[in-house]
Amino acid sequence: PQHNDTEENPTLKTCYDYLKQTSRSFAAVIQALDGELRNAICIFYLVLRALDTVEDDMTIPNQTKIPMLKGFYKNLQDPEWRYMDSKEKDRIVLEDFPTITKEFQRLAPAFREVISDICQKMGSGMTVFLDRHVNTLDEWNEYCHYVAGLVGIGLSQLFAASKLEDEEVGKDTRLANNMGLFLQKTNIIRDYLEDVQQGRQFWPKAVWDKYAQQLGDLALAENRSDAVHCLNELITNAMELIPDCITYMSRLHNQSVFNFCAIPQVMAIATLERCYNNPAVFTGVVKIRKGEAVKMMMGATNIEKVKAIMHHFTLQISSRIPKDDPNAERTQRVCRQALSCT
Ligand code: PS7
Ligand code: MN
Ligand code: MN
Ligand code: MN
Ligand code: MN
Ligand code: MN
After folding, report:
1. What is the rounded distance in angstroms from the CA atom of residue 245 to the CA atom of residue 265?
2. 258 Cβ inside 6 Å of ligand 1
3. What gap in Å lies between CA 11 and CA 231, rounded to an integer?
4. Does 184 sit in the ligand 1 pocket, CB within 6 Å?
5. Does the beta carbon of 52 sit less than 6 angstroms from any atom of ligand 1?
6. Nearest C-alpha to atom 1 of ligand 1 is from which residue?
7. CA 192 to chain centre
8. pLDDT (tens digit, 9 = 90+) per residue, 219-258?
């Protein structure tokens, strides 16, 4: 028997149920992937969701968390391993980890090696910023590399291993890393309030230090103008990645891989456009409108359409740069660069 199909394999069916329960944006595009990539990337997602659930769980003391993160990749070789003490919303993937490892063990060896290697590197990387904050922009890039750049690198290696994409896609780790950085920086920028309220600080001090005494002070009404200038500076930094993301996506041939990569990227630029110069980032969660999101997901089907979407949102931002913004010229320059490659 094949056991590669959810009809005849209840364990795999459960994995897809967990994917749908735990991912807002990735479930549909992962389920649409061709051939062997579908299960490999579903399992990759669940393994990393489990690892991130450990990272995010503020009820686990660092002294327990550090060895858990560093040794997490070894759990893939232990059919019994599970963790029952998480308080996080996605804890089901830790509580039923044996279902995930069972399907992991059915993947081709080349896929298993990529997933295990990325899991090891990410787990170690996550410990670096557990007991200290992100200071410089280099450190911001370093943290984002651990939690998202490595995902981009691993995914690209899986695309190449599946033969659905050229070897070059798997080898150019700089571009793959930057695909992940664009998503993660957008996530960190948008999640300012939620993260600060939970005692997490992912905005780089070298930037916010110019605008406030404490990162949390950016949420105070009296600091609204400085806060928005700080926000705009970080958005400008994230937008520098757009040319590399366009180059990466230009290299893709497979339609299902293209959609999987492009949809999160267009959601990210739409999110940055929504957040730019928007004080609501400091009072609540800024979300893109449902209708807008659906339109983009249908639209991002080839590189020309993705360029047009990126162009549209970049033009919106460039038209809203305030005259008194301390980084107005930099933002204008970064927009001009992004517009010229879209
Ligand atoms: C394997 C599809 C497509 C070349 C679970 C997809 C944290 C933004 O920071 O929990 O905890 O708030 O909101 C996804 C590049 C990663 C980067 C990553 C794995 C794109 C765990 C997604 C998703 C590379 C580590 C949002 C990075 O989670 O974040 C698969 C190419 C997981 C991708 C973390 C963040 C995802 C994220 P946070 P969230
Ligand atoms: Mn998370
Ligand atoms: Mn996290
Ligand atoms: Mn976040
Ligand atoms: Mn989140
Ligand atoms: Mn154009």
Report:
1. 8
2. no
3. 44
4. yes
5. yes
6. 45
7. 15
8. 999 999 999 999 999 999 999 999 999 999 999 999 999 9
**Any ligand 1 atom below 6 A from CB of 176:** yes
Q: Does residue 90 have its Cβ closer than 6 Å to ligand 1?
A: no
| First CA to last CA distance, the chain | 48
Write the single-letter amino acid at 288. Answer: I
- Lookup: tokens for 207: 């930037």
Helix or strand (DSSP H, E) at 315: helix 303-319
CA 260 to ligand 1: nearest atom: 3
> How would you class 322 by CB atoms within 10 Å of its CB: exposed for 0-12, middle for 13-18, buried for 19 or more?
middle
Distance CA 202, CA 133 (A): 7
ipTM field: 0.92
Residues 64-95 have pLDDT tens digits of 999 999 999 999 999 999 999 999 999 999 99
316 CA → ligand 6 middle, Å = 13
> Comparing C-alpha atoms, which of 259, 261, 322, 264 is closest to residue 288?
264
* CB atoms closer than 10 angstroms to residue 63: 7
Query: Is 261 a pocket residue for ligand 1 (Cβ < 6 Å)?
Result: yes
Question: b/e string for 246-263 if b means 16 or more Cβ within 10 A?
Answer: bebbebbebebbbbbbbb
Give Cα 313 to chain centroid, integer Å: 20
Catalytic residues: 143, 190, 200, 260
Contacts of 41 (CB under 8 A, 6+ apart): 30, 33, 155, 158, 260
Q: How many CB atoms lie within 10 A of CB 279?
A: 13
Index of the ligand 1 atom closest to the CA of residue 248? 4
DSSP at 334: H
Q: How many Å apart are CA 184 and CA 186, to the nearest integer? A: 5
Q: Which ligand is nearest to the CA of 191?
A: 4
DSSP codes joined into one string, 134-172: --SHHHHHHHHIIIIIHHHHHHHHHHHHTTSS-HHHHH-
Q: Whose CA is nearest to atom 34 of ligand 1?
A: 147
- Using CA positions, which residue lies closest to atom 2 of ligand 1? 45
* Atom 29 (ligand 1) nearest CA: 187
